[in-house]
């Protein structure tokens, strides 16, 4: 199956479309408390992870942007997800019409700079492919590591809200 997803390369990473061969690693990622605590709020079943992965692929066809599978070049290992999406969330204030940035990585990939490296590549691509769209992100109020990364990536707090029944911060980039 062909994909509309571009392939991005960094020094250590390849960012590409999710593929069927990623399913086991993807399902593992989305079953872990470290990945789901501040995202879905609960572990996903393999079936739910499959639907999420299919949504990632479909976002590219619907919106012209989406999430990438992040692969470590040296090992070929799936490390996580990074990208932008448009989820039509019912938030106040609304972020509809923006590219909502996000990243989630396996615990063994934490603390190695992979998320920053991946997101910098994503934003470089966004600047050329979608230059007129604003970039936002939603981060759980307790997710200090992602808040610090967001600041390093050029995001600034815009508002406080509730998301998935938890206090969250809405950030705008640039």
Any overview of this molecule?
The protein is α+β, with helices and mostly antiparallel strands and 174 residues long. The chain contains 5 helices and 8 strands. The protein has helices at 23-29, 33-36, 46-63, 114-129, 144-152, and strands at residues 8-9, 13-16, 67-72, 78-85, 99-105, 135-140, 155-163, 166-173. The chain is globular. The termini are far apart.
Task: Outline the fold blueprint.
Layout (H helix, E strand, L loop, with lengths): L7 E2 L3 E4 L6 H7 L3 H4 L9 H18 L3 E6 L5 E8 L13 E7 L8 H16 L5 E6 L3 H9 L2 E9 L2 E8 L1
Parallel strand pairs: 5-6
Antiparallel strand pairs: 1-2, 2-3, 3-4, 4-5, 6-8, 7-8
Helix pairs in contact: 1-3
- How many strand segments? 8
Kindly state the percentage of residues in helix: 25-40%
Strand content: 25-35%
How confident is the prediction overall: mean pLDDT? 95
Rg value: 15 Å
Q: What class do helices, strands and sheet pairing give?
A: alpha+beta
Question: In terms of per-residue confidence, which ranges show pLDDT below 50 for 5 or more consecutive residues?
Answer: none
Oligomer: single chain
Most strands sheet = 8 strands, mixed
- Compressed to H and E, one letter per element, the order equals EEHHHEEEHEHEE
